[in-house]
What we know:
Shape: globular
Radius of gyration: 32 Å
Strand order of the largest sheet: 1-2-3-4-5-6-7-8
Mean pLDDT: 88
Structural class: alpha/beta
Amino acid sequence: MVNDEGGETSQTTKLGGYDFYRSTLGSPRYVVAPMVDQSELAWRMLCRRYGAHLCYTPMYHANLFATDPKYRKDALQTCPADRPLIIQFCGNDAQQILDAALAAQEHCDAVDINLGCPQAIAKRGHYGSFLQDEWELLTEIVSTLHKKLSIPVTCKIRIFEDRSKTIRYAQMLEAAGCQLLTVHGRTREQKGPLTGVADWSYIKEVRQHIKIPMFANGNILGLEDVHRCLEETGVDGVMSAEGNLHNPAIFQGLAPPVWQMAKEYLEFVDLYPCPSSYIRGHLFKLFHHIMNIRQNSELRETLATANQLVQFNSVVEKVKAKYEPYQKGELPYEPEEMDATVGAEKLPLAPWLCQPYIRASPESHRQKIAEKEREAEDPNRAKRQFFDKDGNEISRKRMKKLRRRQRRPNKTDVQIQMRHERRLEYCTECANPQGSKCEFRLCRVCCRERCYSSDRDCPGHGILIKSRRAKAKRFEENSKQEENQDSGVGAENPDSNQMTIDARTQDKL
C-alpha cells in the first residue's frame, strides 16, 4: 500500500490472487473487455444490466492520464453502481504508469496493464503487444505497481507462436507481482482480416502453469462459447469484446431486437453523456446486419452524420418502425438485398436481432488478394469504366469524389455549387486565384508586392512586412543606444578600455 505521502506501507490489508478475485471482484465469470472508445460508462452500465460480472474501462494512455487534468477527468467517468471495475493503462515507462495508477486507484478495484494491443498506433507508441519481448522492462513496470499501489495490478497479454515461451512469459508476469492474468489466444500478427481463430490450447497450458486467477479472451460469439471455453481451458472467467459489442445481452444468452438494446443504451447515455463518436460506433455495431441491407442505405447515411442524442434516437425509432412488425409476426419477412460492397451474408437469426458478426477467414482474405494481383497482371483484362449519373464516362478519381459526396447527405447541390463558385474568385491584379482570407483580394505574389510597396501586413497570407520592418527599426534603435552607452562608459574610464584591449590581445595569444 501507499500512505498519504506516497511512500510504501505494509501490504497486510492488500488482497492478491484468489483472495482479491473472490472478495473484491466477487468471483466474476462474465467479463466485458477493455475497448478503446467503446467500454465507456454508459455501455458498461448496459452490460451490467444484462449479466456482466466485471467491466474494464477503455485503454487510457498513462502519460496523458497522469499529466493532463482534462483527460483524467473525462476518463474517470464512473458511478457507485459501476463496480467491480478495473482501469486499464498503456505505456512503456514504470514511473509514468505508476503516476497514472496512483491517480486512479481510489476509483477502481485494480489497475490493468495493456500488453495485448496489436494495432499500428501501439507500435508507434511502443506499448501494448509491442512490449512483449522486453521482459526486463515489464518486470520493472509490474513490480513497481505491485509494491507501490494500494490495489492489485493485473495484465492482459497475447500469446507467442512458441508455446513454451508463452508459458514463461506468463510466469514472469506472475513473479513480478501480477495478481490476475488475461490471455488472448491470438498472436500479435493475428489482427484485422488476418484475425483468424484464437487457440484455446495455449490458454489451457498457461492456466496449468500459473497460480493466480486467469481470464480467457477470443472466439466468444455467444453464451455457449463462454461455457465451452470455461470447461476446455479451466480459466476462472471469460472476457468478451466484439461479441459483446454486437450483443450486450450475450452473457444472458439472449438475442433481443437491436432497437431495444439501442434504446436502453441511449437512455444510459442521457444519464452518463459521452462523445457522439462513441454512440455512433455502438449503434453501427448493433445495427451492423441491417445497415448492410441495400434498402437501408439512406438510414445508414443518416446515422453516419448524426451527432446529437435526438438524432440517434430518431434513427432507432425508424429501425423499430420498419422491423417491429416482422418481429411481432404482423407481416411476413422477405429477405432483402445486401449491399454489393459487403456481399451476401448468411445469418443464423433475423437481421434485426442481436447476433455476432463472423469475420471471413484469413485464407479467404489471402485468396481475394491473390485474385486481385492476378487480375492486375493480366494484360488482357477488361478496363474498368466509371460513369456519372448522366451516363458520361469519368475517371476513377472523379468517381471516388462523387461517392464521397454521396456519403454527405447534408451537402445539397446548391451548397456544392456555391463552394465551387467561391473557388473561381480571381486576383484583382492577375489571372491567379485569390487568397480566400486575403484582405486585398489578391493572390499571394501580388499581395506580397502590395505589402512591400505600401508597407502593409496581410494576416490571411501570413505576409507581415510592416510588422517586421517595425521590429527591425526597434532593433536598430536599441543597438544604437547600447553603442552610445558603451562609448560613454569608455570615455569616462579610459583605463578600463585599455584593460579590455589588453585582455583581448592576451586571448589571441
